[in-house]
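The step that takes the researchers longest sounds almost clerical: writing a folded protein down as plain text. Below is the pair of lines this work produces for a single protein:

——
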Amino acid sequence: MGYLWIKAFHVIAVVTWFAAIFYLPRLFVYHAMAEDDIGRERFKVMERKLYRGIMTPSAVVTIGLGLWLLTINPGWLSQGWMHAKLFLVLILVGYHLWCGKLLRDFRDDSNTRSHRWFRVFNEVPVLILVAVVVLAVVKPF
């Protein structure tokens, strides 16, 4: 498969992963505010399907295609912008896994965080996205 095809599908996977990363914590906000059992159960189903059916597969494809791109262009590994980008991807993977832990807390009815906390938590990936795009496009160092 050609380099540009791999890159295109990598970008598509990144967009899908970020869409899920933006939406799951938003669901957590509403779940934390839910006061009825039917609503809470509905959020549990939505959160589980989003995490397992979209977010995690998108992360796997993003990382897999990113590694494939690195094997095609190993010289990128000697560049500072790529080191910074890979560090931010590691942080994003940690955020992804943390979302999985929070999902389990909601599933087990053991969440102790407020909807306000989740509103702030929801902003973290925005900062990572901005930084990753700037690094990938501008390559500042």
Q: What stands out?
A: The chain has one domain: 3-138.
